[in-house]
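Kindly go through one protein, given below as sequence and tokens. The question is how this chain folds according to its tokens.

***
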Amino acid sequence: MAIYFIRHGQSEFNAAFQGEVDPLIFDAPLTPLGFEQAAEARESIVTLGVSRVITSPLTRAIQTARTIFDGIAPIEVQHGHHELLKFSGDVGRAPAQLGADFPDLSFDHLPERWWHAHEDLAVPVPAEPMAVFQRRIAGFVTALDSIGDEDVAVVGHGNAFQEIIGFMLNNCQIHRYR
């Protein structure tokens, strides 16, 4: 059994963010460069024997997973390893909206609001407290322990993977977790 972490390709938020001002690109999709990065990663994974793919429900991760694994391994959407909510690009969308954009994937099992909620729902980007994020990621790592004897790819996000492995992955970098 092997588990591979793959960070999503460059998103429109990544391309627009200059480090201080949030460009207000909610649930940011991939850029053309992000799709190219994913296509290059596809060439690298063919020898890994991945039989199952778990992706975050954020659009950039789904697009990355589909570009890399379409026709290679089934893709399932899970929340828990989605990005630390700090900026607009980290705000998710409801399962029905995701299902309209990605009708070949199942979103019925997701809560209506699977990203960090705040008491004041009028706040468009409710920052997720670090302790809440860390508990969420720890729960995801515990769930990884239940993966049987199969090779799995997990497509997700920089801060989530950094919390688990201690360093930031580049866009579409493949890292063998275990």
In short: The CA atoms of residues 9 and 36 lie 8 Å apart. The mean pLDDT is 93. The first helix runs from residue 12 to 16. Strands lie at 2-7, 52-55, 75-77, 151-156, 174-176.
